[in-house]
Amino acid sequence: MKKAMYVYYHIENTEHVSTHMSLDVLFQTATKILTSTECDAYTLGHLGLPADYIATQGLRPDIHWVEVALRTSPRLSAGEQDELLPSLYEFNEKIVYRTQGHMGLNLINIFRTTWTSAAMLNPDPQVAQEAANKLLWQPSVGIPRLRLDQCTPFERCLLTNTGLMQQIEDVASIKPPMQLWRCNGQFSDLFYFPASFLRGA
User: What is the largest CA-CA distance in the chain?
Assistant: First the structure.
């Protein structure tokens, strides 16, 4: 749970996170955090142990954090700890795989369009235009390729709004590329739609 919350705070504390990294990179970062077996200073802190605990106790540097958590349990004898360790490893793996699976579904289904739409708000006009083209044509994202029964609520809102879809097409083709809010209101609806949706999320 602590690792999952760290992923959340990593995103929340990174201003305009969608402008700093792609969703794939964010997913890889989150996966690395959740699957890490390292007993680093961050993990030790949540176990109530000092950052130099591994070194001062003479433990091997690659020790799994689950083992450290178990070995520091005062109510268990060494024999009980040895007996419990395999089942705790197995339990941790199940949690990790389940979380990865959930994140994978989010990556593919829920955030595929929302994330790309956020990039249209990027102050770099080229990035915004690339995002518009992805929304239209990229095989894994392209909204027009989806049936309504395949859509998330966000995608359904876009697909059924001909005005917004036309504005996405215009942003994708305008020369030179321009920021959404600097076109004399031409793209105001498209600007406010993802902005208000993402703010509410």
Answer: 73
